[in-house]
Structure formats: C-alpha cells, structure tokens
Amino acid sequence: MKEELEKLQQEALDKIKDTEQLKELQAIRVAYLGKKGSLTGVLRGMGKLSKEERPVIGEIANNVRETITDAIEEKSAVLQEQVLEQQLAKETIDVTLPGRPVQVGGPHLLTTIIEDIEDLFIGMGFEVREGPEVETDYFNFEALNLPKDHPARDMQDSFYITNELLLRTHTSPVQARTMQGLKGSKPVKMICPGKVYRRDTDDATHSHQFTQIEGLYVDKHVRMSDLKGILDAFAKKMFGEDRKIRLRPSFFPFTEPSVEMDISCKVCNGEGCSVCKQTGWIEILGAGMVHPKVLEMAGYDSTVYSGFAFGMGPDRIAMLKYGIDDIRQFYTNDIRFLKQYHQA
Q1: Computed from CA positions of residues 14, 18, 24, 25, in that sequence, does the dihedral angle turn out positive or negative?
Q2: How many folded domains does the chain comprise?
Q3: Residue 68 within a domain
Q4: In whole angstroms, what separates CA 225 from the centre of its chain?
Q5: Fewest CB within a 10 Å sphere: which of 11, 81, 149, 150?
Q6: How many whole angstroms separate alpha carbon 245 and alpha carbon 235?
Q7: Is 214 annotated as a binding residue?
Q8: Within 10 Å of residue 283's Cβ, how many Cβ atoms?
Q9: How far is CA 114 from CA 14, 172, 325, in A?
C-alpha cells in the first residue's frame, strides 16, 4: 500500500504541474482528495492491514494528502496571478485621453431670489421662520379668519389628506403658529419662505406647487404707512431704484384693510405695453393690516397691538425680473436654462 500511495502522489503532482486552468485544478483536487477521490479509495483498504502497519501507512497517507494540498494551493496562486495579469492587460486605461466634462452646478434661480429677499428683510429687522408643509385645517384656515363655511375658501382649492390635514395653501399658517406660540407676550417681526400647494392646472403661469414668502409685523402703533414704506424698499431692491409702487384696495379674509401692490412696468416705464397689458403697472403681491380677529385668536389685544402682513411669490418675482414666460422652467431641471442665472 505504501508503493500505491507514493505512486498516487507522483501522479497527482504531475497533473498539477501540467494544468493551466483553475477549473482543471479544482477537478484534480476533487479527483484525488475528495470523498470519492483516489486517496480515499486507497485508505479504505487499511482494514486489511495489521495493527503494526496501520500507523505507518496512516502517517504516509497524511503526508501524501498534505503534499498534494500544498501543491494545489501553490499552483492555484500562480494561475490566479496569471488571470489577474490577463485581465489588467485587457482593461488598460489610456490616462492620456481627455476626461469627460463635469457639469458644475450652482444655486437654483428661485433659491437665489428667496435668499435675496431674506437678506433684504433681515436687514430691516425681520427674522426668518419656517413651518410644516402638511398643515392642520385650523392653522391653514380657521386661525386666519377663514371658518369652515367661509366662501373665501373656494379661492384656494386644496389638497386634503384627511378632513383636518392638508398640504398648506400658503405660508400664512407659520404666522398664526408664531403668534399663538408667543400668546401676545411680545411683538412679532418675521418672514416665512417655503413651498405651498394648490390644486391647479399646470401651465405657463400656474403650478400645483410653487414658492411663497409671507411677512408679518405686529407691535404697538404699526400703521399702513409702515407697510407702504417697507414694500417700496422691497420693490426698489428687487426691480431697481426707479420702480414706483401703487396700492389698490382688495380683499383678504385675514387683513383689513387689504391691498394689492403693483409696480411700474420696467419694460415701458409705465407708458403701457404688452407686458403690462397697456396699463403701465404689474401686480406683484397682496398685503394689508392684520385683521383684529386674527390678532385676538392668537392672544394679542387688538386694542393695543396692530400689524401688517404681506404675501409674495418668488416664482412670479423671478419671472418678472428676468423676463421668464413659463413657470414650468423652474421645475424641469434643464441645466441649460438654470445655467443662465448662476451669475444673476
């Protein structure tokens, strides 16, 4: 049996030496060292040996197994190295080729407009506040003097999630939350930028999602003239020092009196053109003095405190400022369009 084991070892070593494929090497391992392999077959005959021969043959068999195993591992390492070298040769990269151009991003136009507006109002003492986009019916409507049966609710077709939860239709709920949080304890001077949602058909001038910035100033002795002065400063900052403004009577449930603010058309300087529909003026935002009911619901004494509020759309402001005729351009992520305004 000793001669048979030595012969089997030499035979295996010769095959290992001659093989050039990892698959063949694995087949040799199975053929000689597997459960049904040649070495196992030889060892099954050890039962016929005497007690003295068994330890000797057992030791020889272990040496044969170790020798074949070591040879297979050495050969496997050589073959794997060859495979890697071949793969690297196939995948050689020509580092002298020019690289693909990388598109460099920049702030979105709406982000830039919003930040410019924030900077302006922060400079006038306003603070920036934020609130949830999924809002309660109470803060979105009722706390702003819009009870459930109020006809003005029809002005804002809303995305309701439940009977009491909806996607906010304006950022005014942030004002109501802020005032109620303070419970009439101190003045409020804030703006609240953010996304709002209304059920609207998307076209060149409408979108179901857009941005809005609300402003609020509540304190003792706040007057309509204060509102006009701040809005005039805003118009000149955003559209140029030569812009004029006018305030027209309007209606909003949460302000009384309410106004719409127009700016003089920068295309025709107020003389009348197709942009301003021959009027010389372009509507830009809504505003007014905070309704006493809104103050009272928030915990402010309306006989002591007064205030004004305004709401504007950065989308519309950007369209007017840069002559953009389709609001959908802001949301299609066309880098060719957005790139025009990186330095704006």
Answers
A1: positive
A2: 2
A3: yes
A4: 40
A5: 149
A6: 7
A7: no
A8: 15
A9: 79, 16, 19
Collect contacts of 225-230 with beta carbons under 8 A, ≥24 apart.
226/308, 227/287, 227/288, 227/289, 227/308, 227/310, 230/124
193 and 142 part of one domain: yes
In a domain, 97, yes or no: no
Do 266 and 167 lie in one domain? The reply is yes
Q: Is 252 helix (H, G, I), strand (E, B) or coil?
A: strand
Residues 64 and 203 in one domain: no
Could you read off the pLDDT of 301-343 as tens digits, one per residue? Answer: 999 999 999 999 999 999 888 888 888 888 888 888 888 876 5
Contact 236, 261 (CB under 8 A): no
Task: Map tokens 């609130």 to a residue.
Answer: 131
43 and 125 housed in the same domain: no
Note whether 199 and 157 are within 8 A (CB).
yes
Per-residue pLDDT reduced to its tens digit, 173-205:
999 999 999 988 899 999 999 999 988 888 887
- Considering the entire predicted model, what is its pTM? 0.67
For residue 263, give the H/E element and its range: strand 255-264
Q: Is residue 66 part of a domain?
A: yes
The verdict on residue 96 lying in a domain is no
Cβ(11)–Cβ(71) under 8 Å?
no
The domain of 282 spans 109-339
